[in-house]
Design brief:
alpha/beta; four-stranded parallel sheet; three-stranded antiparallel sheet; 9 strands; about 25% helix; disordered N terminus
Protein backbone atom coordinates (compact mmCIF):
# COMPACT_ATOMS: atom_id res chain seq x y z
CA UNK A 1 0.00 0.00 0.00
CA UNK A 2 2.94 2.34 -0.13
CA UNK A 3 4.92 3.88 -2.92
CA UNK A 4 8.37 5.43 -2.93
CA UNK A 5 9.70 8.86 -3.78
CA UNK A 6 12.74 9.31 -6.04
CA UNK A 7 15.01 9.31 -2.97
CA UNK A 8 13.61 5.95 -1.79
CA UNK A 9 11.51 7.27 1.12
CA UNK A 10 8.10 5.71 1.56
CA UNK A 11 5.25 7.98 0.48
CA UNK A 12 2.43 5.96 2.02
CA UNK A 13 -1.02 5.39 0.60
CA UNK A 14 -2.63 7.85 -1.81
CA UNK A 15 -5.35 8.55 0.75
CA UNK A 16 -5.70 8.21 4.52
CA UNK A 17 -9.11 8.22 6.15
CA UNK A 18 -9.55 8.99 9.83
CA UNK A 19 -12.70 7.48 11.28
CA UNK A 20 -14.55 4.50 9.84
CA UNK A 21 -18.24 5.34 9.72
CA UNK A 22 -20.63 4.61 6.82
CA UNK A 23 -19.29 7.38 4.56
CA UNK A 24 -15.64 6.34 4.88
CA UNK A 25 -16.64 2.67 4.76
CA UNK A 26 -18.39 3.38 1.45
CA UNK A 27 -15.38 5.31 0.15
CA UNK A 28 -13.12 2.41 1.10
CA UNK A 29 -15.43 -0.06 -0.68
CA UNK A 30 -15.37 2.05 -3.85
CA UNK A 31 -11.55 2.42 -3.74
CA UNK A 32 -10.96 -1.29 -3.00
CA UNK A 33 -11.20 -2.55 -6.61
CA UNK A 34 -9.07 0.32 -7.98
CA UNK A 35 -5.51 -1.09 -8.24
CA UNK A 36 -3.96 2.28 -9.11
CA UNK A 37 -5.29 3.92 -5.93
CA UNK A 38 -4.16 2.97 -2.43
CA UNK A 39 -5.87 3.88 0.82
CA UNK A 40 -5.70 3.22 4.52
CA UNK A 41 -8.44 4.03 7.00
CA UNK A 42 -8.03 4.25 10.78
CA UNK A 43 -10.61 3.93 13.56
CA UNK A 44 -9.98 4.13 17.30
CA UNK A 45 -12.79 1.68 18.13
CA UNK A 46 -11.89 -2.02 18.00
CA UNK A 47 -14.56 -2.85 15.42
CA UNK A 48 -17.09 -1.20 13.15
CA UNK A 49 -20.14 0.06 15.04
CA UNK A 50 -23.11 1.88 13.59
CA UNK A 51 -25.17 3.89 16.09
CA UNK A 52 -23.46 1.92 18.85
CA UNK A 53 -25.68 1.71 21.92
CA UNK A 54 -28.67 3.21 20.12
CA UNK A 55 -29.89 0.22 18.12
CA UNK A 56 -33.56 -0.29 19.00
CA UNK A 57 -34.98 -3.81 18.58
CA UNK A 58 -37.19 -4.20 15.50
CA UNK A 59 -36.30 -0.72 14.19
CA UNK A 60 -36.31 -0.50 10.39
CA UNK A 61 -34.20 1.57 8.02
CA UNK A 62 -35.70 4.90 7.07
CA UNK A 63 -34.12 4.77 3.59
CA UNK A 64 -34.23 2.09 0.90
CA UNK A 65 -31.53 -0.57 1.42
CA UNK A 66 -30.20 0.09 -2.09
CA UNK A 67 -28.78 3.31 -0.65
CA UNK A 68 -26.04 1.08 0.73
CA UNK A 69 -22.28 1.63 0.64
CA UNK A 70 -21.87 1.29 -3.12
CA UNK A 71 -25.00 0.57 -5.19
CA UNK A 72 -25.79 4.14 -6.36
CA UNK A 73 -22.21 4.47 -7.67
CA UNK A 74 -21.37 0.87 -8.61
CA UNK A 75 -24.36 -1.51 -8.66
CA UNK A 76 -22.07 -4.44 -9.58
CA UNK A 77 -19.79 -4.04 -6.53
CA UNK A 78 -19.08 -7.06 -4.35
CA UNK A 79 -19.78 -4.76 -1.36
CA UNK A 80 -23.49 -4.27 -2.14
CA UNK A 81 -26.25 -5.06 0.34
CA UNK A 82 -27.75 -7.53 -2.13
CA UNK A 83 -24.43 -9.39 -2.36
CA UNK A 84 -24.29 -9.48 1.45
CA UNK A 85 -27.76 -11.04 1.54
CA UNK A 86 -26.81 -13.56 -1.16
CA UNK A 87 -23.57 -14.56 0.60
CA UNK A 88 -25.42 -14.97 3.89
CA UNK A 89 -28.10 -17.15 2.25
CA UNK A 90 -30.79 -14.58 3.06
CA UNK A 91 -31.56 -12.98 -0.31
CA UNK A 92 -34.78 -14.87 -1.07
CA UNK A 93 -36.02 -14.55 2.51
CA UNK A 94 -35.43 -10.80 2.29
CA UNK A 95 -37.25 -10.54 -1.05
CA UNK A 96 -40.34 -12.42 0.08
CA UNK A 97 -40.51 -11.24 3.71
CA UNK A 98 -43.78 -9.59 4.60
CA UNK A 99 -42.31 -6.62 6.41
CA UNK A 100 -42.36 -2.92 5.83
CA UNK A 101 -38.61 -2.38 5.82
CA UNK A 102 -35.12 -3.69 6.30
CA UNK A 103 -34.19 -4.09 9.97
CA UNK A 104 -31.46 -1.72 11.14
CA UNK A 105 -29.74 -4.63 12.91
CA UNK A 106 -29.46 -6.44 9.57
CA UNK A 107 -27.95 -3.34 7.98
CA UNK A 108 -25.38 -3.09 10.77
CA UNK A 109 -24.51 -6.75 10.08
CA UNK A 110 -24.04 -5.75 6.44
CA UNK A 111 -21.69 -2.90 7.40
CA UNK A 112 -19.60 -5.23 9.60
CA UNK A 113 -19.50 -7.87 6.86
CA UNK A 114 -18.21 -5.28 4.38
CA UNK A 115 -15.65 -3.94 6.88
CA UNK A 116 -14.32 -7.47 7.45
CA UNK A 117 -13.60 -7.80 3.71
CA UNK A 118 -11.39 -4.70 3.47
CA UNK A 119 -7.75 -5.08 4.52
CA UNK A 120 -7.19 -1.31 4.21
CA UNK A 121 -9.27 -0.73 7.37
CA UNK A 122 -7.36 -0.54 10.65
CA UNK A 123 -9.40 -0.73 13.85
CA UNK A 124 -8.14 -0.07 17.36
CA UNK A 125 -5.79 2.71 16.27
CA UNK A 126 -6.34 6.24 17.52
CA UNK A 127 -4.97 9.05 15.37
CA UNK A 128 -3.52 11.75 17.59
CA UNK A 129 -2.06 14.25 15.15
CA UNK A 130 -1.84 15.25 11.51
CA UNK A 131 1.11 17.36 10.41
CA UNK A 132 1.93 19.12 7.18
CA UNK A 133 5.36 17.90 6.07
CA UNK A 134 6.36 19.65 2.87
CA UNK A 135 4.07 18.42 0.11
CA UNK A 136 2.58 15.59 2.15
CA UNK A 137 0.73 15.02 5.39
CA UNK A 138 1.95 12.79 8.17
CA UNK A 139 -0.68 11.00 10.21
CA UNK A 140 0.48 10.02 13.71
CA UNK A 141 -1.19 7.37 15.85
CA UNK A 142 -1.16 6.81 19.61
CA UNK A 143 1.42 4.00 19.36
CA UNK A 144 3.96 6.20 17.58
CA UNK A 145 3.16 4.97 14.08
CA UNK A 146 3.40 7.48 11.25
CA UNK A 147 1.74 7.23 7.85
CA UNK A 148 2.50 9.67 5.05
CA UNK A 149 -0.10 10.64 2.46
CA UNK A 150 -1.07 13.42 0.09
CA UNK A 151 -4.83 13.17 0.73
CA UNK A 152 -6.83 13.05 3.94
CA UNK A 153 -10.51 12.29 4.55
CA UNK A 154 -12.06 12.91 7.97
CA UNK A 155 -14.99 10.81 9.11
CA UNK A 156 -15.76 12.71 12.28
CA UNK A 157 -18.78 10.80 13.56
CA UNK A 158 -21.41 12.36 15.78
CA UNK A 159 -18.95 14.33 17.92
CA UNK A 160 -16.36 15.71 15.54
CA UNK A 161 -12.78 16.26 16.55
CA UNK A 162 -11.08 18.31 13.87
CA UNK A 163 -7.28 18.51 14.16
CA UNK A 164 -5.92 22.01 14.75
CA UNK A 165 -3.80 21.84 11.57
CA UNK A 166 -7.05 21.78 9.59
CA UNK A 167 -8.80 24.56 11.50
CA UNK A 168 -5.73 26.78 11.68
CA UNK A 169 -5.94 27.21 15.48
Amino acid sequence: MTGTMNDGRATGPDLVGIGIEPANLGLSALIDPQPALTARFFERRSRFAWHDGAMLPAAALQVPPLKDLVTPVDPTSRFSFLNFLAEQGRLYRHLIAARSGTPREEFEQYYRWAADLMPQLTFGTEITEVRIDGEKLTVHDATGGVTGTRNLVLGSGRRPHVPSCVTGT
